[in-house]
Design a protein that fits this description.
heterodimer; A: 441 residues; Cytochrome Bc1 Complex, Chain A, domain 1; 16 helices; 17% strand; globular; disordered N terminus; B: 466 residues; alpha+beta; 2 domains; six-stranded mixed sheet; 12 strands
């Protein structure tokens, strides 16, 4: 099942199980500057390329009504000029030196991802340090970029029924916490963000004491640190951003969302309030997601796609987040499928898990999947940079990356049943159905 | 996310990604593999990398792709590939799925146009078992009637679902509009009509005729040593047998060349955004224009600051992404431009696209040419960083009968590109008069904006097939 791109990278970030010998905690050099900037350096000469990843502790979690989507908008504006470097110049200079970049915004973080040849290192560090010290927010560019975001929303949500339903279900399940809205933000907010508010938001969150810099690949760590000191050292720390204090109140009964829209196929999704990444219940639910949802041998794929032929595909799981988020089951129903029947099948399967848990064979399968995904994510210098930074952001310590595998291995199989009984229950559930109307054959 | 070259290409041109990312690049970074030839004639290239305990396997099966399908059996290549996974004489479909999922392995078979590809990635400790399953499904498929019916129904429903997403649907419409009745116009997914008239016998016949080791080539890269691998390969893929008689002719007729403008409008009344794809003749795998074409495309629509993305996204905010790309096969290639915008802006967007196409005929500056050279050279190393990308490169190069020094030559040529080279590539590859243009959007709103471009054939998205 397709996930939205601006969520994807971070959601995939942090799995493990015994690490490759070539990548050890001791290989990561850790430094901090007086202004609070945290630095992680990893020397790896496998290819002549450097991955420079900058993570900021800001995402849609830090937003408020009227400013939804603004974290992602700033991600875009970071490429549109500073007092010293004109709009678009960051990309032009970088590409001229053989570099390429992207960026992503998630609920909890914003990450800037640069890949370039070693010769461009100083120039890239200089440009990254420059853009945390003030953006130009040129009014015409501001308006043009607003249009880009509106297009991104139309592409990713408004013209994608599954995403539209997912957004509504999320907003129904989560009432109070800012995870209520999607990272992209509401269209009316996108169309009305004010320049002064956006600038204030940027100033609050873009500061060295709210950032983690990861440089991995073909570098000399001593010289790299010197360059970082040279360009980031003079940057002033900011007051710490305000904490996110809202706690989602407990849900006391099933919520149901029904949408009607022109479509050929229905959409279906069900979610349950889940634990945060640091909660002891997180790992058991993460393990459960594999035999329940992943692959054609999973319980729900077998029932819904293969045996009852109600669905085209099944997916979901739980993402690693700072505050409690959702355990999700996404189903792509067949045209004309009975959505209530899909809901009943899911309930039947969850009832089995609550009663009997998962089998030892399923537990081993989950561990194999987790371990393989983890190694796959560490095959590249970019993957290593991303895992280090995202782990630091979500868990507060990159070293978790090197122990989380042991944590998984320590989860007893009975804990899966307990966690399912605690979270995947009717009173904690929101179910969403999109029913096709008109247009269909 | 902000990158069109990343997100959008992934959505719009999934099949061509390998070709686009590695048009014909790579250098000393692609180490020379060892060539192993099995007793049944299958060639396997091996390179050992013990950095991480993973192994990647790629197998290209020439002639098992959608372009080899009989005209009456569109989609059979994709269906055969999918059904291979659905059980053998000894394991049913559920047992195959369970065995693969248990290892956490990724394993799949997919039909491209000129070949079917088997991919398999796993932890090194699971690789022998994975290769055993690969051999079992390739040599002893059950092709049960029940699984055939299930897979066919799933595919028909999948095609309907695709029509709910205009960004996805336009790929199908474009392929049909551009290639028409040519075999390259066969949709790997099939169409509802073609799938309905197929039988399990159609699938069996295609498999028997087209899956043969004498037209295949494989590569294994990762944490496995040569001697262990040779024994393993003989026991597994060594069981693949060639059908009696010579391989069927693989040559395809020349690709169609649009004469004049072919304009097609697909009405999707609920769309809030209009999507376009514009295509014209490109170049074949190995064509000597390859390096110049990459340089030209980098500047025109292949990266974030490309002309297309600069004018449509960066300057005007009309879209999240605009790009151009090359798709290359042995038989030829195409150039495709694509983007999308709010319904009321599609006329403005296309005007700008045509302005840029005209402007490109005047060529590119020395500084931007240097930037394109640096960009391609700088972004090359990560494209071969993983076991999977190396295995894919070995198999692809061998399949298209290119040497493993192909990428050295390519990068050498990139380093020497001049503005004149790029101008010549633009003159040959960017269309002004002869092209196929498909738009998917809300006709009631966009039709008046499109009228000035010529006469449009219209279809409704709810009409059967594409």
């Amino acid at each position: 099942m397709r996930k939205r791109s601006w969520l994807l990278a971070a959601a995939l970030a942090v799995l493990s199980l015994s690490l490759p010998a070539a990548f050890k905690k001791e290989d990561v050099r850790v430094h901090s500057l007086d202004n609070g900037l945290k630095i992680l350096l990893l020397e790896d000469h496998n290819i002549p390329s450097v991955a420079l990843y900058t993570f900021f502790r800001v995402g849609s979690r830090n937003e408020r009504p009227g400013l939804t989507g603004v974290s992602h908008f700033i991600e875009h504006m970071m490429f549109n000029g500073t007092p010293g470097i004109g709009p678009g110049e960051f990309d032009r200079r970088m590409e001229f030196q053989g570099g390429r970049n992207n960026a992503y915004t998630a609920d909890d973080m914003t990450a800037y991802t640069d890949w370039f040849p070693p010769a461009a290192l100083e120039s890239m560090i200089a440009m990254e340090a420059d853009r945390i010290q003030g953006l130009a927010f040129v009014p015409e560019v501001f308006e043009s970029e607003r249009g880009v975001i509106a297009s991104e929303r139309r592409l990713g949500v408004d013209n994608d029924n599954d995403a539209l339903l997912a957004e509504t279900v999320r907003a129904t399940a989560i009432m109070a916490h800012p995870y209520h809205w999607d990272v992209i933000g509401w269209m009316s907010d996108i169309l009305s963000w004010r320049r002064d508010e956006v600038m204030a938001y940027y100033r609050t969150y873009y500061a060295p004491n709210n950032a983690v810099l990861v440089v991995a690949g073909d570098i000399d760590p001593v010289r790299t640190l010197e360059l970082i000191r040279k360009y980031y050292g003079p940057v002033k720390a900011s007051p710490p951003p305000p904490p996110v204090s809202t706690v989602e109140p407990p849900q006391l009964g099933t919520k149901t969302v029904v949408m009607r829209k022109e479509a050929q196929t229905p959409s279906f999704t069900a979610v349950w309030h889940g634990p945060s990444a640091k909660d002891p219940d997180f790992l058991p639910l993460s393990i459960l997601a594999k035999p329940l949802l992943e692959g054609e041998s999973s319980r729900l794929y077998r029932r819904l796609v293969r045996e009852e032929e109600l669905a085209i595909d099944v997916g979901g799981g739980i993402g690693e987040t700072i505050d409690p988020h959702l355990f999700m089951i996404d189903v792509k129903p067949r045209p004309g499928a009975d959505l209530d029947r899909i809901d009943r099948v899911i309930e039947e399967e969850l009832a089995k898990v609550r009663k009997d848990g998962i089998t030892p064979q399923e537990y081993d399968k989950a561990m194999n999947i987790i371990r393989t995904d983890f190694y796959q994510g560490l095959q590249t210098v970019a993957g290593k940079a991303n895992q280090l930074g995202a782990t630091e952001l979500v868990f507060g310590d990159f070293a978790k990356l090197f122990s989380i595998m042991d944590d998984y291995a320590a989860v007893k199989v009975e804990r899966v049943k307990e966690a399912a009984g605690k979270y995947l229950i009717e009173t904690n559930k929101t179910v969403g159905k999109l029913i096709p109307e008109g247009g269909a054959q | 996310m902000r990158g069109p070259a990343r997100t959008v290409l992934a959505l719009v041109l999934a099949v061509s990604i390998a070709a686009a990312a590695l048009p014909l690049q790579a250098a000393r970074q692609l180490p020379a593999p060892e060539k192993l030839v099995l007793k049944n004639g299958l060639t396997v290239y091996h390179f050992r990398n013990a950095d991480v305990p993973l192994v990647s396997f790629r197998l290209f099966l020439g002639g098992a792709g959608s372009a080899a399908e009989p005209a009456s059996a569109e989609g059979v290549a994709g269906l055969a590939a999918a059904l291979l996974m659905k059980g053998t004489s000894k394991m049913d479909a559920d047992a195959v799925a369970e065995a693969l999922d248990f290892m956490g392995a990724s394993f799949g078979i997919g039909a491209a146009e000129e070949y079917a590809q088997v991919y398999a990635d796993s932890l090194a400790e699971h690789f022998p078992r994975l290769l055993e399953i690969a051999a079992a499904v390739l040599t002893d498929p059950a092709f049960s009637a029940d699984e055939f019916e299930k897979e066919r129904a799933l595919r028909i429903d999948g095609l309907k679902a695709a029509k709910d997403n205009p960004g996805m649907a336009i790929r199908y419409y474009f392929q049909k509009a551009y290639f028409g009745g040519h075999p390259m116009g066969h949709l790997a997914s099939g169409t509802e009509a073609s799938l309905r008239q197929m039988t399990v016998q159609t699938v069996k016949d295609f498999y028997r005729k087209q899956y043969r080791p004498d037209r295949a080539v494989a590569a294994v890269v990762g944490d496995i040593d040569r001697d262990a691998l040779v024994g393993l390969l003989e026991k597994t893929l060594g069981r693949m047998a060639n059908p009696s008689g010579p391989a069927p002719a693989a040559a395809l007729p020349a690709l169609p060349r649009p004469a004049g403008k072919k304009l097609i409008l697909i009405d999707k009344p609920d769309a809030t955004q209009a999507y376009f794809s514009l295509g014209a003749p490109g170049y074949a795998m190995g064509d000597k224009i390859t390096a110049a074409a990459s340089g030209m495309n980098t500047l025109f629509g292949g990266r974030f600051t490309s002309w297309l993305n600069t004018e449509l996204r960066i300057k005007r905010g009309l879209t999240y992404g605009a790009s151009s790309s090359a798709r290359n096969w042995a038989v030829g290639g195409i150039t495709v431009l694509s983007s999308y915008t709010k319904n009321d802006k599609i006329g403005e967007m296309l005007d700008i696209v045509f302005d840029l196409l005209r402007k490109a005929k005047d060529g590119f500056g020395a500084e931007e040419t240097e930037s394109a050279r640096n960009y391609i050279l700088g972004q090359f190393p990560p494209s071969l960083e993983t076991n999977a990308s190396k295995a894919g490169a070995y198999a692809r190069l061998a399949f298209y009968k290119r040497g493993f020094d192909e990428y050295d030559k390519y990068l050498g040529e990139i380093g020497r590109l001049t503005p004149e080279d790029l101008k010549a590539a633009a003159a040959r590859l960017l269309p002004l008069e002869d092209f196929v243009l498909v738009v998917v959007g809300k006709a009631a709103e966009i039709k008046p904006l499109l009228a000035k471009f010529g006469t449009w054939q219209e279809k409704r998205i709810t009409d059967p097939d594409f």
